[in-house]
Fold each of these.
Amino acid sequence: MSKTDKPALSDFEEAALFFHRYPKPGKLEIQSTKSLGNQRDLALAYSPGVAAPCLAIRDDASTAAEYTARSNLVAVVSNGTAVLGLGNIGPLASKPVMEGKAVLFKKFADIDVFDIEIDAMEINRIVDVVAALEPTFGGINLEDIKAPECFEVEEQLRAKMKIPVFHDDQHGTAIIVAAAILNGLELAGKDIASAKIVASGAGAAALACLNLLVTLGAKRENIWICDIEGVVYEGRTALMDRWKAVYAQKTDARVLADVIGGADVFLGLSAAGVLKPELLKQMADKPLIMALANPTPEIMPEEARQARADAMICTGRSDFPNQVNNVLCFPYIFRGALDVGAMAINEEMKLAAVKAIAALAREEPSDVAARAYSGETPTFGPDYLIPSPFDQRLILRIAPAVARAAMETGVATRPIEDMEAYLDKLNRFVFRSGLIMKPVFTAARSAEKKRVIYADGEDERVLRAAQVVIEEGVAIPTLIGRPQVVETRLKRYGLKIRAGTDFELINPEDDPRYRDYVELFLKYTGRQGVTPETARTIVRTNSTAIAALAVMRDEADAMICGLEGRFERHLRLVGQIIGKSGGLRDFSALSLLISQRGTLFLTDTYVTVDPDAEEIAEMTILAANEIRRFGIEPKAALLSHSNFGSKDSESAEKMRRATAILSERHPDLEVDGEMHGDAALSQALRDRVFPASRLTGEANLLVFPNLDAANITLNVVKSVTDALHVGPILLGAARPAHILTPSVTSRGIVNMTALAVVEASQRLDTEKQL
Ligand SMILES: NC(=O)C1=CN([C@@H]2O[C@H](COP(=O)(O)OP(=O)(O)OC[C@H]3O[C@@H](n4cnc5c(N)ncnc54)[C@H](OP(=O)(O)O)[C@@H]3O)[C@@H](O)[C@H]2O)C=CC1
Ligand SMILES: CC(=O)C(=O)O
Ligand SMILES: [Mg+2]
């Protein structure tokens, strides 16, 4: 076909080309992990400083893991001979796929990758090229190299190299396929030892899957293979090799239709459209159809479903349920292997990964996984045999299991000494808030259990958070919500907690305490123009009011609300019912931003529009006390457009007065102002304009002159730096109460719960400190 005869591209294909081309061609770039800001940095990074690590590594090769990026660096190597289901398109054309694998490694497991496309087709040449790369890498991921060459290549490289060599299309696929088959057979009530498995494709992926299934108990005599030549039978000579021959059957059957009858599993790792709907009718009860060819499966799910309503169907694609794709495995098996400096990825490590993936599908789905599926949240069943690729728990389950298996089988050169610390590290990668929140969670878990009441008890995020809060022993939740709605949603989201046994439920439409709540509400608000009629309506319809009343009746130690509606309306109720801590002028809000650069607290991001100097001083102290709960000593900067007296505007003067109040009343607090935002974050800048500043290093608490400045900064920084927001943390309430925002995630609710628990257990006497 000449260039001009090319078929028109679909919108999706056009979008894919645009995506790859802009704003920079490709999907990868190299980033430096050290700043090279001055002459000295250059001297350290390069000549002459670089000689020191070179010589250290010459004398002790293991130190390469300390002085270079090697231990976290994987080569994704392909010669382009079996690229997805596109076939032999050559090494250069395979580069987008290899760049793709690289970004998946980075995104899902923080592993750095060089994609290496090699123009090498013969086994010996591939082996020579790859083996010569050993000094550069901590591991080798072979990709899209066709069978049978790939088997020989991998065998030889594994024998030659002392780092893991893993052919992803074989073993990554086999691990995830095995996990899906174990779960699928269990759901169908079948035993792997008697299951009939019919495979289409006898290439890298299919043979590795079958080998692993045999290790897991499948019987060779129950396995049938068809490839492009038809059935693999004893005596066949065309397109045979010793790896395929292992599965040759003594039979007269010659095509797929001859062997599919009574099959429990169809394993397609071949090409588009190979499985015709009429063949499905001959399969056993509740058949498992794994149509895994990419990008177009052996049969489209809707066709398969039409032919067999009882079938469980998997594809390799992300636009259907049950995505069986090696992306669920390769980032995490390498994470575990690299973290122990494994010399190989052995059978035990692979089996550990299979078990971890199969078990994870049976846990409650995470909220992120739930969001990855639009609509219904999946729970373990025919449409959810394996976890979603976006399930953040994949790394938390697979990597430690693999690392442990490596240590137990003696292939780990750097065994993990403290498994708990390792899990913490993985958790921090998944939940960026992990590190800074750790002291808060530790304190919450070790405190006497506190009861936290959630106004939005019917919200999916609250239900998920409640499950975590109970599992992690952070608090005892009380939810406000209609029992029927809560019950239905818990089931729909696959959550195991139940009202009555795991948490208390307050039904706003029918609770025996209703009259008491109304009476108490009138006690607080009767003199503020609230009539008994209004009070009854509010207590029946407003769950924030109920939560606040429950806290005041000592039925809960802390409350969380605000997932719907406006902040100010919730604050008004909290103010009316719970009120401010004695002596305080106002509430204020503290926001914690967690970004790549570090953590920063900002105040007042939600409450007082234009605080005066006294209020600024008050919110600074409240914020400083809160920050200490994180195990951090506050360093406060009072911000302004003026830098240490450079301007005389009213707001600059206000911040100067607030600084003076703080210095006088709280000499122990490290605070200074008024100053520019950049001066707050740089000692060098301050030294230039005001070397006598009381602030040292970087401020961790930024106090703004008004609500506009604080709230705008919060939202802009959050968006520009992709920072995570913990908060708003309401300061100044007489009892712990937090009003979250509609964009909060369930992890955010868990974080705020832990904080509320700590506040409840160590209620600081803020009045005394002011
Ligand atoms: N979902 C996932 O995670 C993964 C999916 N795959 C998919 O599996 C497929 C195979 O990949 P891989 O094993 O690496 O490639 P290989 O080239 O090693 O193997 C392909 C196999 O499919 C066979 N085949 C090709 N066309 C047909 C056909 N029409 N009928 C029956 N068999 C056929 C080939 O037969 P012969 O040797 O006789 O030519 C060969 O045995 C690809 O579509 C790939 O995208 C692969 C890895 C992971
Ligand atoms: C997913 C994958 O590796 C493949 O289709 O080749
Ligand atoms: Mg592949």
Amino acid sequence: MAVLTEDALIKIRRDLHQIPELALNEVQTAAYLEKVITSFNQTHLEIRKIPDLPTALLVRIEGSAPKRTLGYRTDIDALPVTEETGLPFASKHPGVMHACGHDIHMTVALGVLSYFAEHQPTDNMIFFFQPAEESENGGKLAYELGVFKGQWRPDEFYGLHDNPDLPAGAIGCRMGTLFAGTTEVNIDLEGKGGHAAYPQDANDMVVAAAALISQAQTIISRSIDPIEGGVITLGKLEAGTIRNVIAGHAHIEGTIRGLTQVMIKRIDQRLQDVGEGIARSFNAKVTVGLNQGGYLPVENNPELTKRFIKYMKGNPDVNFVETEPAMTGEDFGYLLSKIPGTMFWLGVEDDSQLHSATLSPKESSIEAGVNAITGFMTARMAE
Ligand SMILES: CC(=O)N[C@@H](CCC[C@H](N)C(=O)O)C(=O)O
């Protein structure tokens, strides 16, 4: 296969959209990606699998006169969301959806890869198709497995995230922090179940969980500098079995966001404090589990990002938008803490937010993204 045309890219995106898989289970997705990649010109290309991270794929293209190795990363996992777009190519996997646009990310990466497979780059290139961005820290897992060593270590790493708030095909970026760091939150409350009619003999964890959730929201409004900001979202609550049994257990899952490690640690500590307070006041056992894993703030490298922005601003075919930091998280933050690089947005123009069941990115963004990235990589290699 030659360089992917716009029609081919859209077909690939729709195929991938129909087979979304959760973190570390991206088996069909990885097989599909491999099939597409093996259809490219293989002359200078090497595909590598990682036995301990079996849904990851790495591709190396040998440069003709390499001065460096350029890395490009895409995430490949999906979310436990039931799709409500009504599209003819909607998810075929019940309860799972590419609701964060990773189908777009993968397709753009394949488009860029197809170009350089056909037009040998001067620098070496590494493409990393990364499992488990939404949870489970795929980037960190790969790094800790020693994947990026020797000829597989990029000198610089680039990656994108789609953005429904930007016009289709626009490139958004900023110097400094692009995305927040996050902490995954798991809270368990243990009390005593009982009959609905006899609360005095039980210890109701629905009421304790409700109090904890309300108090947690005061952390941001009362303990955090409003100029700096932060987020606590508790997105999942499980408790009880039936209306007339007092629940003796509740489970809460959520996420904390801050633009600096200091801020994240401060919010983490305050949530621990709230958990201890609820334990005392409800005579319950409260376990607050906090795990940042690889979701460090996404810090763009100053030198490389300056070059990136200069290229995008100077390219008349690119609609470049200087963006504000966002509270979205990304485990690319971990890889950028080890290898310098730049993360940026690709506009996909949609009324629905990321992670929503109706997200429907504009497909014209794909070819625009491929062209902008291919152009940037080519220009970078000429420096
Ligand atoms: C771009 C995006 O939506 N990323 C996810 C990353 C998840 C981080 C982690 N699992 C957490 O939930 O804290 C996001 O939710 O921002």
Amino acid sequence: MTIIAVDGPAASGKGTIARALARHYGLPCLDTGLLYRAVGLSVLKAGGDPDHEADALAACDFDAPLLDDPALRSEAVGSLASRVSVHPGVRQALVQRQRDFATQPGGAILDGRDIGTVIAPDADAKIFVTASVHVRARRRYDDALAHGGHPDMDSLIADIQARDTRDMSRDHAPLRMADGADLLDTSDLTIEAAIRQAIALVDAQLEGRR
Ligand SMILES: Nc1ncnc2c1ncn2[C@@H]1O[C@H](COP(=O)(O)OP(=O)(O)OP(=O)(O)O)[C@@H](O)[C@H]1O
Ligand SMILES: Nc1ccn([C@@H]2O[C@H](COP(=O)(O)O)[C@@H](O)[C@H]2O)c(=O)n1
């Protein structure tokens, strides 16, 4: 069984890298941010308060098809996800689902904020993907433009900074580089180069464990 943990801040490119690693190693992949986004969107739909733990907890029992809802991908829902994810009860409610995915026969790749620290601390390989705030905001900007939106760079930068601060400073499972993780800064890398480097880092970690 091979478990690969990919963590990092918003728009660092961790999902792109996790999916490429999944193709390369023939493993299933879980974007764990979607689980928190589903909770955030469910609270909103129920008219609850994302900062109120009981409202957020009630939303953890969402229906699986919600994970395919394109509305989950918006920056606004990303921000809601970040607010519900500070509650320890919400994190606890989502842990087993992620661990079950990680420990399926053959293993898996998971990307998120606490995969290498909390969900799979004994993962066979761990990567922490990052990029400068400006580069990450630029990626969100380009995505929004490509989808016909009218993005504002300053508000994207502010949203990403607010999300980084909340994710890194919360008491439970804060975003940080896990022990044994390799850092991959994608600020100046093309997608192809970032994927090549990620595969080289994972290969080296897997080789080191043999
Ligand atoms: N190295 C790169 N160079 C240029 N663009 C990139 C690079 N890596 C990812 N991107 C683009 O940046 C955007 C965000 O990437 P991605 O969704 O992989 O980030 P993420 O860290 O998973 O974000 P999220 O906060 O949604 O979890 C996507 O449009 C992706 O194609
Ligand atoms: N393992 C995780 C994954 C995500 N979160 C929180 O959800 C927010 C949205 O995540 P994206 O990866 O889809 O951007 C994120 O800002 C985190 O607050 C988490 O706590 N743990």
